[in-house]
Amino acid sequence: MKMTGSQILCESLIKEGVDVIFGILGGSILPLYDTLTQYPQLRHVLVRHEQAAAHAAASYARVTGKPGVCFATSGPGATNLVTGIADAYLDSTPVIAITGQVARPFIGKDAFQEIDITGITLPITKHNYLVTDAGQVAQTVKEAFYIARTGRPGPVLIDMPKDVQVDMAEFDYSTRLVMPGYKPTTQGHPSQLKKAARVIQDAAKPVILAGHGVIIAEAYDELKEMAENNQIPVITTLLGISAFPGSHFLSYGWLGMHGMACANMAIDACDLVIAVGMRFDDRATGKISGFAPHAKVIHIDIDPAEIGKNVKVDVPIVGDVKAVLKGLNKYIEPKQNPEWLSHLEALRLQHPALHIGDSDSILPQYAIRKIWEATEGRATVITGVGQHQMWTAQYYTFDRPNTLVTSGGLGTMGFELPASVGAAVGRPGEDIWCIAGDGSIQMTIQELATIVQENLPVKIAIMNNGYLGMVRQWQEMFYGKRYMATPLACPDFTKIAEAYCIPAINIKHRQDVEPAIQRAIEHPGSFLLNFVVEPEENVYPMVPPGASLAEVMETPRKEVLKWPRKSTL
Amino acid sequence: MATQKHTIVALVMDKPGVFNRISSLFRRRGFNMESIAVGHSELANISRVTIVVDGSTVQVEQVRKQLEKIIDVVKVTDITLRDTITRELALMKVHANSNTRSEIIQIVDIFRAKIVDVAGDSVTVEVTGDSSKVETLFKLLKVFGIKEIARTGYIAMTRGDTASL
Ligand SMILES: Cc1ncc(C[n+]2csc(CCOP(=O)(O)OP(=O)(O)O)c2C)c(N)n1
Ligand SMILES: [Mg+2]
Q1: Same structural domain, B98 and B65
Q2: Range of the structural domain that residue A456 is part of
Q3: Most buried one in A155, A384, A524, A537, CB count within 10 A?
Q4: Residue B12 maps to which CATH number?
């Protein structure tokens, strides 16, 4: 049947199982938006800035496992998407970004709102397209979704000239994809699996290092099986948090710059790193020459280019993490590691990572801990970027798989509110908590309007320290406490929230924290909590930049919080 | 780390933007591209690219893997360690007058290069060969003064029955 390019696009999206689109319209994408009126099954969530559309689509993708879709118009609409696309690229998230473009005869003429968005996004997309013929739309969408969600997932952008949106063509979605240049490896090579099994068998002090790939592949059970059958402690990366239950007796937290001291020390002491679906980011490894100095490395990843990129690998296994772990588990003879585990247990006790001091003022760690308690650790938690992000990763114990949505690779301030929109749309009826920074939230605070318009029950907790805190901490530690451009004059966030018709309260004393959280939970819709917290609290532990993991600095505080864990299986 | 020149051969889809993707990758990851040559391959809609890149074995392996990740790149092989035929074509416009012309012709003959154009005060030389041949001829002709040089970049193929990729 003949249809317009826009209709073909909508039909194709439906074929791909899309039911929601985040976006903002404009001149070059008007025909497509007009066509949306014919497709009520495609819900459109109007955001207030295209960056938010991309973050929301990415967050939706992360919580649902399905590609997220965002729309923007040409020119400024498209360029506003860039930060969100880059964020999705670095965190391997399947996003389909569809941009309007000026009509074909105007391309290359510097027409009004013409920008070369395929050129701009070339290094931050897994692939991108400029569609020059309505007859290509279906094929392009099919390819785009396939590329975005298979292999190592990533964002794909489709640029659609305005006249292609109205041109007529035959709609046919049955064509087979022919992509000779794209064949992701999913099954690990059997001989590599056997080799890895032998190395695991021989190791006396193994650790599993679980990354985002475990979550993307939903390999939770396989990971648990490997850890439990062989008594191997599990440490995650920041994005690997919630790949393995945080209170599991084999969980040793997460590694890196602000990871748990005992995790960093375990990496330093181990004789085998089994890296699963992670990429040895420098924030995770510390000084690379000092990383796991006594260890062999088994690296399991779906992206062959990640293997050997940063760390020398003894046994590389390219493949889908779930399939590889499943295969590997068959080859390993169950084993106990009592000495190694008791050594790590001692490390954990000597170097406790969680500290909440006594004070009348509110420590951000305390507020986050109380949110964890009140939500019984079951919420989907979204963070901004900064100290509050690290404290969330430390003080909220994630036992439910895939419940932390945070910007890892790009570290994008302003991520939290738009990502909360995406998470709330993707997980209706669930607890959605947005842990925000007073700086970070101001980068995308306009999305309060989206939350209201879409009636999303997002609970927002601002850790208001009056500073760009993470940067202030660096200035305190490494720049002689010269606080250049880090003190923040913040608006009254409760008044801002009220202007958007979101109820809000200020919390200034420790004893008011719990009741405030209860109020937010009891309120059926969105609620904003402005926690006025200790301004100059620092994030510990910390591996100073350029140092190796073993050189982790621990908190000068004395008070210790018990690590929540189940003593046995 | 010791660096070395590597010859990488790639088959890529004949689509707009492919070379932009390749060159963007080299720029963005700081890989050092010495030469690139592109032409049709024996397959329809597929071009063949030969890239000479300077780097350590580990770096060049990264180059190869990153190239493989480009969706429109079909296949990439590093043929450095194989027995290969490598060729480049160069045109050199050399200053020449009645005194120097015969000397230039002699040098050109020794290199089995060709004079393809003669004008009032120059001759144009065409040479085909591996890198050392082109470089050496260039050095010898430089003393006469080179007005202009154009080079194609290297293309390469393995010897024997098996294909390079
Ligand atoms: C878009 C963007 N700009 C700048 C930075 C650098 N940066 C990292 S953390 C940070 C401070 C964040 O402040 P706030 O949101 O108040 O969080 P806090 O650290 O105080 O918890 C800054 C400026 C960044 N990560 N992203
Ligand atoms: Mg702050």
Answers
A1: no
A2: 364-539
A3: A155
A4: 3.30.70.260
What gap in Å lies between CA A484 and CA A337, rounded to an integer? 50
Residue stretches of chain B with pLDDT short of 70: none
Structure tokens at A100: 């309007």
Q: For residue B135, give its domain range.
A: 85-156
B162 belongs to a structural domain:
no
Q: Which two tokens stand for residue A8?
A: 């073909």
- Residue contact A123–B74, C-beta within 8 A: no
Mutate to test the interface with B, among A127, A130, A158, A318 (most CBs of B within 10 A): A127
> A24 and A121: one domain?
yes
Number of domains, chain A: 3
B10 part of a folded domain: yes
A235 within 8 A of A267, measured Cβ to Cβ: yes
Residue A440 lies in a domain: yes
Residue A178 contacts B, CB cutoff 8 Å: no
Beta carbons of B94 and B125 less than 8 angstroms apart:
yes
Number of neighbouring beta carbons within 10 Å of residue A521: 16
Report d(CA A137, CA A132) in Å as an integer.
9
SS3 of chain A: helix, strand, coil, percent, to 5: 40, 20, 40
Residues B52 and B98 reside in one and the same domain? no
Whole-structure pTM value: 0.96
Which of B69, B72, B73 is most worth mutating to test chain A (most A CB atoms within 10 A of its CB)? Answer: B69
Q: How far is ligand 2, taken at its centre, from the CA of residue A282, in Å?
A: 24
Residues of B with Cβ-Cβ distance to A180 under 8 angstroms: 13, 74
In angstroms, the separation between the Cα of residue B85 and the nearest Cα of chain A is 26
Ligand 1, residue A384: give the atom nearest the CA: 15
Shared domain for A389 and A516, answered yes or no, is yes
Tokens at A28, concatenated: 């070059």
- Domain CATH number, residue B124: 3.30.70.1150
CB-based contact B49:A289 (threshold 8 Å)? no
| Average pLDDT rounded to a whole number, residues A198-220 | 97
Residues of A labelled catalytic: 50, 112-113, 162, 470
- CB-based contact B160:B88 (threshold 8 Å): no
Query: So what's the ipTM on this one?
Result: 0.91
Task: Tokens 């010269």: give the residue.
Answer: A482
Residue A40: pLDDT over 50: yes
Answer yes or no: do B69 and B103 share one domain. no
Average pLDDT over every residue of A85-97:
98
A273 and A391 within one domain? no
What pLDDT score was predicted for residue A568? 47
Tokens, residue A71: 């729309």
